[in-house]
Specification:
Radius of gyration: 16 Å
Helix content: 10-25%
Number of helices: 5
Strand content: 25-35%
Largest sheet: 3 strands, antiparallel
Structural class: alpha+beta
Distance between the termini: 27 Å
Number of strands: 8
Number of domains: 1
C-alpha cells in the first residue's frame, strides 16, 4: 500500500477563472511508479490517472465527476489544461451503475454517482447539444439520459484537478481524499 503524500492546495487565478490545483510530493510518485504500487496497469499500458471535471469556481451549479484517463497523451493534455488554466470540454461515454470511482468530489460526503465513465473520447472546444448538461442532470434520470445518448460533454465543465496518483482509488481511501479536498 502506498502512503498518501502530503498535498498542498493552491487557489489561483488564470484568465479570470478561479480554480484549485494540487501538488504532490514527487518522491512518493517516483517510488510508486518504481514499485508499481497503486496503479494496477499492465506492461505497455499507461497507468490510469483520475481527474476531477467540474465547473470553474465560482459556479452556481457546482458539482463534479471523476474522469479516468489511461492514454499518456490524454493524461499529459489534462495536466496541461490544469497547469495553464485552459478550458476544454471532456467528451466521454457513460453507462448506468456506480463503479466505486465516479462521484461528486466537492459535495459533502463525496457521494457516488449512479453512472460512470466507460470511455474517454476527446477534449473539445465545442460539441453537440444533446450531450450537454451536468452530472446532477444525468443523475436525476440516468435511464432517460441513456435513452437519448450514452455520451457526456458538459459545456461549462473542464478538468480542474488531478486526484493524486499516490492515493489508490479504493473505497477505504475516500476518507483521506475527503480531507485533501475539503473547501
Amino acid at each position: 500500500m502506498v502512503m498518501v503524500a502530503e498535498h498542498q492546495h493552491v487557489k489561483y487565478r488564470k484568465k479570470g477563472i478561479k480554480m484549485r490545483k494540487s501538488k504532490s510530493v514527487i518522491a512518493t510518485l517516483a517510488l510508486s511508479m518504481t514499485l508499481g504500487i497503486g496503479f494496477g496497469s499492465q506492461a505497455g499500458e499507461s497507468p490510469t490517472a483520475y481527474f476531477v471535471i467540474a465547473g470553474p469556481l465560482p459556479f452556481p451549479f457546482y458539482d463534479s465527476y471523476v474522469l479516468p484517463l489511461s492514454d499518456s497523451a490524454d493524461i499529459a493534455f489534462a495536466r496541461q489544461l490544469i497547469a495553464n488554466g485552459e478550458f476544454k470540454i471532456a467528451v466521454a461515454r457513460i453507462a448506468p451503475g456506480a463503479d466505486g470511482i465516479n462521484r461528486d468530489m466537492y459535495a459533502p460526503g463525496m457521494p457516488e454517482w449512479s453512472w460512470h465513465v466507460t470511455e474517454f473520447l476527446e477534449f473539445a472546444d465545442c460539441t453537440i447539444e444533446i450531450c450537454d448538461g451536468s452530472p446532477t442532470l444525468v443523475e436525476q434520470d440516468v435511464d432517460g439520459w441513456m435513452a437519448s445518448t450514452d455520451m457526456i460533454c458538459f459545456w461549462t465543465y473542464t478538468v480542474v484537478e488531478e486526484i493524486p496518483p499516490s492515493v489508490p482509488v479504493e473505497e477505504k481511501t475516500w476518507s483521506r481524499i475527503k480531507q485533501l479536498y475539503k473547501r
